[in-house]
Amino acid sequence: MAYPSFVVGIAGGTGAGKTTVSRLITQRVDDSVTRIPIDNYYRDLSHLDLEERAEVNYDHPDAFEWPLLREHLETLLSGNSVEMPQYDFEIHNRKEERKTVEPTDVIVLEGILALYDEEINDMLDLRLYVETDADVRILRRIERDVVDRGRDLEGVIDQYLSTVKPMHEQFIEPSKKHADLIIPEGANSMAINLLEEKLRNEVEGEGVRTWEREELERELAGERTADRDATATTE
Ligand SMILES: Nc1ncnc2c1ncn2[C@@H]1O[C@H](COP(=O)(O)OP(=O)(O)O)[C@@H](O)[C@H]1O
Ligand SMILES: O=c1ccn([C@@H]2O[C@H](COP(=O)(O)O)[C@@H](O)[C@H]2O)c(=O)[nH]1
Question: Which parts of the sequence are annotated with region: Disordered (predicted)?
Answer without folding.
Answer: 214-235
